[in-house]
Amino acid sequence: MYRNIRPIALLVVALVWITQASGQGCVAIKSFTTCDMNAFTNSNLMGKGWVVSTNYRYFRSFRHFSGTEESTGRFDHVNADGSVGNEVINYVTQLNVGMAYDLNKRNSIYFVLPWSYNTRSSLYEHGNKSRHSMRSVGIGDIRVGVQRWLFDPDSTRKGNLALGVGIKLPTGNFNAMDFAYDVHPQVDTNGTVHSGEYRPVDQSIQLGDGGFGFTLELQGFAKLFGPVFGYINGFYLFNPMETNGTRTYRETLNPILSNEAICSVPDQYMARLGLDWNISRKIGLNMFCGGRLEGIPVEDLIGGSEGFRRPGYVISLEPGLDWMRGRHDVNLSVPVAMVRDRTQSVTDKETQAATGKPRHGDAAFADYLINISWSVRLGNGHPF
After folding, report:
1. Which tens digits make up the pLDDT trace of 327-349?
2. Neighbours of 15 (CB within 10 A)
3. Each residue of 347-375: pLDDT tens digit?
4. Would you list the DSSP string of 20-57?
5. Smallest Cα–Cα separation from 318: which of 21, 11, 9?
6. DSSP states of 208-233 as a string?
7. Rounded to whole angstroms, how far apart are CA atoms 359 and 161?
8. How far apart are CA 125 and CA 199, in angstroms?
9. DSSP string across 57-118
10. Higher pLDDT, 196 or 38
11. Nearest to 147 by CA among 233, 249, 272
12. What is the pTM of this model?
């Protein structure tokens, strides 16, 4: 039986492996993982067993977009201290650790714990006098969930579809703070003047969003011809909570931004569609490429949408390689941004209506995202 299943499992492992998704910049502010941590590896076709997975992700966002238009003038702007460039730069490094338990060939439960180290370099958050950085480090919002293959893997070898549901717990710090320079001078007990204060870091590098959420997820594959398969992924995070109480201080930049004084708790979404080619069945090597859409909607599907958020989306071309040997699966994916759109937010629209002047905020996006994952099947089983 395993000999018949082997070609499908070898291909499917490359199709939609762990599928980490993270916005490339200020738009999609948190990471998430679709379905269980080993959804398309051989363990799903072998019955009970534990799978441990890790994923490393990195990106650097620095290109500002308002709508789909890039604000290239930011790179040439001359600042008060004589430096050139007032773009905001986010460096995000994240390590996700997950565990999945396959109850049988069709049903799984999973647990995902993210850990992040984030740095944000800017001028406007430091009085626009000179460039400084703010940081956040720690665990993010934990997710747990279940998934089920709709069709029996033993009888459906040319395609299948898995559906999953999960919950997101507010375990990440949504009010992480660091020192903001050249703002609100204060005098300590010794009479020393400090030109700055500790403030919450920007929403884009907060470790969590502060809300209880739930997810709907799907992923599937279908054999098209020869060694070529098609794959699909979908993920939506519902965040019913409206705001989390974390202050943004944006109202101090301009009184018309009073609607943006507190952070929103936004929904998130992701979708992938592409092709996979089994290069070598003997060594377990696969190559895949497809389209990827991810972002934050202007308004949540459930609950209110007030507070500050940077809605928008990224459409990327996502090439990658996957290698599976025995109980191990190693995957490399590099989504490259093709379309970046910072859409008009609820507060943008409210401000525009109140002032009669056009209002469309911007957001920083990355050029590409690096994903590296490794998963290991534990215990008894029938690895290839």
Report:
1. 889 999 999 999 999 999 998 89
2. 26
3. 889 888 888 888 898 999 999 999 999 99
4. EEE-SBSSS-SEEE-SSTTTTSGGGGT-SEEEEEEEEE
5. 21
6. --S--EEEEEEEEEEEEETTEEEEEE
7. 43
8. 10
9. EEEEEEEEEEBTEE-GGGGTPBPTTS-B----EEEEEEEEEEEEEESSSSEEEEEEEEEEEE
10. 196
11. 233
12. 0.87
Residue reference for tokens 């990827």: 292
> Can you tell me the distance from the alpha carbon of 310 to that of 223, in angstroms, rounded to the nearest whole number?
38
CATH class of residue range 2-377: mainly beta
Cβ–Cβ under 8 Å, residues 267 and 236:
yes
Tokens of 211: 């809300």
Do 361 and 348 contact (CB within 8 A), yes or no?
A: yes
DSSP 278-315: EEETTTTEEEEEEEEEEEE-SS-SSS---SB---EEEE
Q: Which amino acid is at 256?
A: I
Length of the chain in terms of residues written: 384
The residue whose two tokens read 């747990």 is 144
Distance in angstroms (rounded) separating the CA atoms of residues 203 and 209: 8
